[in-house]
Amino acid sequence: MDDILKDLIKPLLTKIIEYIDKNEYWYAYGITIFILLSFIVIGFLLSWFINRRKIKKEIDKIHIETKEKKLY
Predict the structure, then answer these.
(1) Which parts pass through the membrane (predicted)?
(2) What is the pLDDT of residues 10-24, one digit of tens each?
(3) Residue 30 near residue 12, CB atoms below 8 Å
(4) Backbone angles phi, psi at 22, to 5 degrees
């Protein structure tokens, strides 16, 4: 986890600070928005995938229960 933070986040933060030092606020703003949107999209996709798997398991359980009831 520490390697990920050092390899990915530290260079982005230093780049944002460099843009702020050069008075190029729009670049810093764009990079910040891109990072935030990336995390939001990744979180949304992960939650969608997990919920999809849960729903599929529930549907399979219902199918098995209905088949058992039909046998009796």
Answers:
(1) 26-50
(2) 888 888 899 899 998
(3) no
(4) -85, 5
Where residue 63 falls among pLDDT bands split at 50, 70, 90?
A: confident
71: which 2 tokens? 């046998």
Region of residue 34 (left: phi > 0; alpha: psi -120 to 50; beta: else) = alpha
- The distance in angstroms from the start CA to the end CA of the chain is 54
pTM of the model: 0.62
Residue with tokens 């549907």: 59
Torsion 16-17-18-24 (CA) sign: positive
DSSP state of 23: T
- Three-class DSSP category at 22: coil
Sign of CA dihedral 37, 39, 43, 49: positive
